[in-house]
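## tool: complex_structure
## caller: assistant
## args:
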Amino acid sequence: MPDFQPVLLANVGKPDSHTRRVYEQTGGYQALRKALGMQPKDVIEAVKASGLRGRGGAGFPTGLKWTFLPQNHPGPIYFCLNADESEPGTFNNRILMEDDPHQVIEGLIISCFATQARAAYYYMRCEYPLAFQRTSAAVAECYEAGYLGQNILGSGYSLDIYMHRGAGAYICGEETGLIESLEGKRAWPRIKPPFPAVEGAFRKPTVVNNVETAACVKQIIERGVDWFKSIGVPPDPSNPRDAGSYGPKLYCLSGHVNKPGCYEAPLGITCQQLIDEYGGGVWKGRKAKAVIPGGISMGLLKGDELHCPLDFNGPGKFGCLGLGTAAVVVMDDQTQMIDVLENSCRFFSHESCGQCTPCREGTSWATKMLTRIKHGKGRLKDLDLLAEIGDTIGIMPGTTICGLADGAAWPIKNCLQKFRPELEEYIKRTNPTGWMETKPVPALQLQTIH
Amino acid sequence: MPTVTVDGIEVELGADERLNGIQAARRAGVEIPHYCWHAGLSVVASCRMCLVECGKKDPATGKVAMQPRVVPACQTPAAPDTVFITASDKVKNARAMVEEDLLLRHPIDCPICDKAGECSLQDYHFEHGREERRADIQPFTSRRRELGETVTLFVDRCVMCTRCVRFTREVSGTSELMVINRGAHEEIDVFRNEDGEIRFPLDNKLSGNVVDLCPVGALGDKDFLYRQRVWFMKSHDNVCAGCSTGCSIKVEENQDRIHRLKPRENPHINGWWMCDEGRYGWKHVHDPARLTQLRRRETGKLVSADWHTLPAQLENKLRAAGRLGAVLSPHLTVEEAYLLAMYIRVLDPEAVLAVGPIPTSGEDEHFRGGFTIRAEKCPNRRGVEAIVSRVGGSLLTWDDFLAQVEAGSIGGAWITGGYPSAWHDAADAEKFASVKTLVVQDVFASPLWDRADFQLPGATFAEREGSYVNATDRLQSFKWAIRPPAGVKTEGQLYWQLLGRPGLYRASEVLAEIAREIVYFAPAAQGVPEVGVDLKVTQLAASAELVASAGG
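## result:
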């Protein structure tokens, strides 16, 4: 194990780490006291100066997001904590919420104070019963201790946290989808603009942040901006749009490794380091064939691209979409890429909210095509069609409202770029007589998607 | 003047005009295909058919900076100096992709689909789709299920534009329709019990509009289902006679048989909608019980008459009857009412004029989207009242008229009906015992009809020509849509002949005459546009001018 001392995960694993007693013993809620002694705008400035980028997937600078709130708004301003962690392979929020809920809540209160939000909605996915139970208990403890409610710690600032459980849809993690769901509607992402900071939940200015982001805010206030900036990588001077990747990050390592788990490491650690130093290497002495750098929607790294640094910029240089949720999934050399791709498409087809035509139909078409290929009825032409679907759906070409389709498109694109020979070989092998065929193949009893 | 450029064509914008890309392009004569967008509903930008390239022109340098991605035109405001490109390869590919996607699971059962011929999916596919089908998915299902009394859903034809869902939420305010399931399994449905029984059917009073809104054949009008291929029908602009809202409509007929009514866009009256009562309220036109025999009473017995000799016979009898009275039905057009009033006044300058009974039912109903169904179930109360009070001198109601008849002061009466249902009872008819010559013009038999000395079969709204004035004093003119059944002469044509005017009845000529004679109708003097003219506003302006000039 490297010598990096975990900060976000410092309390995880201690007995009763989810209680206020244990949390306060390790200096809990001191950061809150410190923050309440500051001006809200100074807290925002501190977070801005730290270069903290959102940990939910898109990596948008948190401090900047907060400054998008309208000035002198009569209010109320709302804060949504996005705990709808649904990206396959991602479980860092769960660890935090189950084992250190107070850290998240403290960060949440500080963030709300900074944005002067009147109420915070803690939107947690349904599949986390223990996290929900512990977080709800922690919120109750905070009310008892005066960290929540009217006039928090005599500062004159009041805040309420409302727990809300999702019903288990991936799309509810999209910030406007989350807001719609919170309002009791179907989680169809909204058209932007207006962005939530201008008009969000209940048509009021709203900030949506991730659980890990809130935990980082707490650490920044407690340990200072300089500490935060001492971790991670500075901006790439050749890329003017890069805001740098500072701070510790929770990496969720899973798949074919010896020791899967949630590890805290400085941003910028390479994929190879993470697998070898934290995960104990690929299992059964095999080699990694492909690695998902940050949740399946970010695409795939090839086995020979593992020197890719896992910061907000790194995976992009290797054709991936970005760091995403930093859920690293390792696949060994026995994995068939057709299975990976089919599985990924099936997931996105199932989770597509169905609002925009290209995403709804494109993901379902790709799934049907891949199911057919997998059943030995593939044609080489299908790969071109898949590549076309991958290129044309998503917010990047402008054909959908939200980024779900980009997430669906990236594994298709990456897979076809990086593993096309293998896919072609599979088609030729499983459909020896028909792979050149351009005529429609006879109807096949296709698996239903659900 | 701020301008927007669409495919190189400059379009001028009004000062406070807020158009989206589709509307701006329309003004430039460029059609941007779209499914989910509708001017009367909120914008969801989900069908993605209207994708275009968009950019901004720097007014100082004239340089255009284009956005790298395509944008939905429906959601992109046509702000000053916006540049839209709708014909590039990028846009064409995007459209082809959406068309291909929508047809992946579409059953393509156009030969048995009612919408074929007026279907956006068909039209756009011919124009923007691919020539070959690249998908191996065989769309062989064509499920159908009921949504309510009026509408049926062909589930697999749906393209999920959600116009119907938004309509029930935003316009009718009843929210019966919703989207169920997710992703490619999404369907439109109503709320059902576990066994599939409908719990809350689509039964609001505007439900038929969802069929018009549906850009494809997913929502079927049960009344029209499998009745007629749309390309056989001719469409005629008309005005609904169901209530005093007077919705602008289209009558769609084939060989003088109406098959359906559709709303016609009119921002001043009905927007894009009409109510079910009006939509299905044309059945009486083809009712087998309709009167088609012209008869007159000779020595107590009814004998057939013919329209050629009728004018002379009528004149003889009416001149001999003494004091005359005419009841102008609120189903008559302004022109018809005027001509009849003129005719009666020619025969007897002191003739009594009255307005027919005004059928009402319940209260005015207002809907969330601003649509109103009026309690007054006739189209032209205001217009006929204006004629009666201006020509007759005072505004007599049906009851006033009955009282005069009962008192025996009326010798000859001309009663016009035209109501789709019973409009008087036997007791009313008894009061006409003292009337020497009773002329009744109506569409259905009634006690008065049985008592009449002259039985004149009349026309219904689709056969009339002329103008109605609705409850908000808006006058709309329309032409006949179908010919009346054999044996029937429309009121307008009959009165025209009775007044000795040559040739065919020309409503526009009569209206011009009325506009000259009666101040109330003056705004109609310069002709009547498709959306009608507001008699009240000009009236107010005129009286304001009058006041001003009086003051000066």
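## assistant note: The mean pLDDT of chain B is 93. The interface with chain A takes residues 43-49, 51, 67, 69-71, 75, 93-94, 97-98, 101-102, 104-105, 133-138, 159-160, 179, 181-186 of chain B (CB under 8 Å). Handing back to user.
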